[in-house]
Amino acid sequence: MKKAENIIVGISIGDLNGIGSEIVLKTFEDSRMLELCTPVIFANAKIISFIKKNLELTAQLHGIDKIEQLVLGKINVLNVWKEGVDINFGKNDDNVGKYAVKSLVAATKALKENQIDVLVTAPISKYNIQSEEFSFPGHTDYLNQELEGEALMFMIQDNLRIGLLTDHLPINDISKHLTTDLINRKVEIINESLVKDFKIRKPKIAILGLNPHAGDNGVIGKEDEEIIKPAVKKLFDNGIMIFGPFSADGFFGNGLYEKYDAVIAIYHDQGLIPFKTLSFGQGVNYTAGLNKIRTSPDHGTAFEIAGKGLADYNSFKEAVYLAIDIYNSRIEHQEMCKNPLKIKQKQL
User: How confident is the model at residue 138 (pLDDT cuts 50, 70, 90)?
Assistant: First the structure.
């Protein structure tokens, strides 16, 4: 890994009819951001310039045709395609969806080839990206195929960290996918991420129950008693500090989550509803468990306000910060693992 001060942040542009371009440009209008990293937007320079002009933004863009032409300290826009694209803010357009995919595929390729150091993805429409060539529910599933490891959706806002055991599954399929093996894998991924990416030496992890009141000792469903509790006990006996399952309804309201370094939600909305309630638009979606770093804002395309200059860019900015922080943490972790004496000294 290269020196952190030279970090190259690749950005997939997302849906051009949404707020993605706006939040990217607003983030890097602050010149201080360019002292932290060098962005490369995977899109088309003319189109991004058009959107910038439409929104009356002032960020200076540097168009390039290949990654080797990037200039440190500039907002680089890599021309992934040459042709024009009709932009209609707020419209869910299948043709625009194809260009969101082109951007993501090109940025992921650059990430795999170490041409960029981290990837930050702007929001896509899960509906208009679907095709015979690209049939993934979202970024996470695609990156899970393309990169090494097993992807896990990890929602982050300061010390609030919520990992998802399952993510884009229909509610009626969740219990069918809930297995001891799944719990073991996902807990180990979160535990490793907390150590390697967040520099927490001995993490404490909480897991929520599937059923109301975590099953009430089997009265309201059997999964908590028969699957989750035995898995938690085995993981704890093997040295991972995991506790639960906890009843999900009161866990966040009474502040119990503050006692843990991470919380594992069994399904998407069980984790995302409290997360978005507590994170106040500052949250980040981090794809843990992979050999490369990818973050994104915790919101969607927001078609209803696209092109109006109203988009709040704080979540995207936090996604850039988090990608840089994790990159630095991984460098430090690698260096410590190379030098066992240094680890022992830090533990004294």
Answer: confident
Instruction: Find the mean pLDDT for residues 95-121.
Output: 97
| CA gap 284, 158 in Å, rounded | 9
By the 8 A CB rule, do 123 and 300 touch?
A: yes
CA distance 211 to 220: 7
SS3 204: strand
Spell out where 105-240 has E strands.
118-121, 149-157, 160-164, 204-208
- Starting at the edge strand found earlier in the chain, the sheet holding 241-246 runs 61-64, 75-79, 38-43, 8-12, 118-121, 293-297, 284-290, 149-157, 160-164, 262-265, 204-208, 241-246
What is the rounded distance in angstroms from the CA atom of residue 231 to the CA atom of residue 155? 23
Give 109's contacts (C-beta < 8 A, 6+ positions apart).
none
Q: How far apart are CA 216 and CA 95, in angstroms?
A: 50
Q: For tokens 């975590």, name the residue.
A: 214
**Mean pLDDT of the residues in the chain:** 93
**282 touches 313 (CB < 8 A):** no
Q: Which of 181, 171, 248 is nearest to 208 (CA)?
A: 248
Q: Backbone phi, then psi, for 264, in 5-degree steps?
A: -105, 120
Residue whose entry in the numeric block shows the structure tokens 């884009």: 168
Q: What is the pLDDT at residue 1?
A: 43
CB 197 within 8 A of CB 329: yes
- Cβ neighbours, 10 Å, residue 257: 21
This prediction's pTM: 0.93
Q: What is the largest CA-CA distance in the chain?
A: 63
Nearest Cα to Cα of residue 331 among 17, 138, 117: 117
